[in-house]
């Protein structure tokens, strides 16, 4: 790809639609198929990076999804894998992920993306983007937009870190908070298999008693927080400071963790009843 318009004022309609129209959208439009490309490949395209991710394609209906799948396979496409969530197809030396979670339009699709830097969609005629997507992409900032599965978002955040993006402390706090609130997790938003695994990890570990699970989780939570505090103090160069002050601060942190664990235990008991 030959452009990297990181300010929407520099983006020209023809320059960003032409490559993707030639790639796939014109073929589908000529067959009366409604669809749009959204997500990572557009993020990489607009930032001038090599496009190493597959092109994610979204649809307003099962009919458009099925017609796209048929068109690609009937015209030389190769089915790489298929599941209840979609299909991956190689077509004309590119890889396309056809997503089965439908939306009425591109705006609805990108509004459910977890990071603003991926809030881009093209339907062949128009570019759709988030309010701060270009600004955040230009500054390599990871800003949360919508969290469905915090663990998946965390994995994507780590992947983005490897590409040069960063997340400030406020955004990181939001993500970690959602990760700890998995009891309120929207299980309807993921596949049945993922929902089953999440429920199992939350409420039961292969037949181990709830009490034992709690003891194991508490032990490693305290160990993890303790190591995190030591690492933070070392990174900030505070280990040579007043050790008594650091100790008191650590005790406050661990005390807060203890209170949180107690409240969490009470909530689990209420849920079981």
CATH architecture of the largest domain: 2-Layer Sandwich
Main sheet overview:
7 strands, mixed
- Let me know the average pLDDT: 77
* Global geometry: elongated
Give the helices and strands as they follow along the chain: HEHEHEEEHEEHHHHHH
Structural class: alpha+beta
**Considering DSSP H and I runs of 4 or more, what fraction of the residues is helical?**
40-55%
Please, what is the CATH homologous superfamily of the largest domain?
Beta Polymerase, domain 2
| Alpha-carbon Rg, integer | 23 Å
- Write out the strand line-up for the largest beta sheet, numbering strands in chain order: 3-4-5-2-1-6-7
CATH class of the largest domain: Alpha Beta
């Amino acid at each position: 790809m030959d452009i990297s318009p990181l300010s929407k004022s520099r983006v020209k309609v023809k320059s960003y639609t032409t490559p993707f129209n030639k790639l796939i959208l014109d073929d589908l439009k000529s067959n009366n198929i409604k669809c749009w490309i959204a997500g990572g490949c557009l993020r990489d395209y607009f930032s001038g990076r090599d496009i190493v991710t597959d092109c994610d394609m979204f649809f307003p209906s099962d009919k458009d999804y099925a017609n796209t799948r048929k068109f690609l396979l009937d015209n030389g496409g190769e089915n790489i894998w298929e599941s209840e969530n979609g299909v991956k197809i190689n077509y004309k030396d590119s890889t396309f992920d056809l997503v089965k979670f439908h939306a009425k339009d591109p705006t609805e699709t990108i509004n459910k993306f977890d990071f603003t830097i991926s809030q881009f969609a093209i339907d062949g005629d128009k570019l759709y983007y988030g309010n701060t997507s270009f600004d955040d992409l230009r500054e390599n900032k990871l800003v949360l937009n919508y969290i469905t599965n915090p663990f998946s978002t965390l994995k994507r955040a780590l992947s983005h870190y490897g590409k040069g993006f960063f997340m400030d402390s406020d955004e990181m706090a939001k993500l970690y908070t959602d990760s700890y609130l998995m009891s309120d997790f929207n299980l309807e938003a993921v596949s049945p298999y993922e929902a089953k695994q999440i429920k199992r990890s939350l409420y039961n570990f292969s037949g181990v008693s709830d009490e034992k699970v709690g003891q194991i989780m508490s032990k490693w939570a305290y160990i993890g927080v303790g190591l995190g505090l030591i690492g933070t103090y070392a990174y900030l160069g505070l280990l040579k400071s007043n050790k008594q002050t650091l100790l008191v601060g650590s005790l406050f942190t661990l005390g807060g963790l203890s209170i949180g664990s107690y409240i969490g235990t009470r909530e689990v008991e209420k849920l079981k009843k």
